[in-house]
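## retry 2 of 3
previous attempt timed out at serialization; input unchanged, resubmitting
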Amino acid sequence: MRVRQRQKRTAHSRGRSIFLLLLLGGGALALEGRILYLQLVDHDFLAAQGDDRHIRTVQMAAHRGPIVDRNGELLAVSTPVDSIWANPAELRPALDRVDELAGALGLDSAALIRRITSNMEREFVYLDRHLSPTDAAEVLGLGLPGVYTQREYRRYYPNGEVTGHVLGFTDIDDAGQEGLELAFDYWLTGATGSKRVVRDSYGRIVADLDLIRAPRAGAQLSTSLDLRLQYVAYRELKRAVAENGARSGSVVMLDPR
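## retry succeeded, writing output
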């Protein structure tokens, strides 16, 4: 009797082992089949999905042409800066960290949250413009999803008000608004380029794939101004206006010979 019970238990244990082996084998076959299916059948689809998430076409800003005096001295020049923008939908999961982002940008936290949440249907929203590359890198270092940088250019006038009334100025998008900047905007404005890049999960560019269109810088504008004479005329005119309590003044310089 005991021998028969022992044989029965042994047969039951052997049957259970065989069932587990068959179950594990079936699972392994199913997993292998799924892997082969993804690699052979769905490979193109999955590769395309990966590219859609990490390969982007980005704009390459072109700097505005410089303005120089008759001797080649710089009167106006564009220098590179970075602007911070966000995709609100991608940033949504990290809204609890907006205080960190606002601190890095020097912005009011409540106003920044309103700007993000009120533009959830958009894919591009500027958060701050014209930061130094160092400050922009600090913002990206927070590792927030959906926060990116865009290279732009900012106009500088080394001689300030000495030549300001002649040169005019540009707006935040580097487009001429007054003076020579406006009159010769077509000449000074460059043409943006584009390229395909690979971005990581933080939006940082990790590799350039190919150049679609190279940016074309704006042309240099050479004027008949002589910066040295311009400065002398400005200094003397400013002194005369101050000494006479005048509301404004003007001066014409010419060579009588």
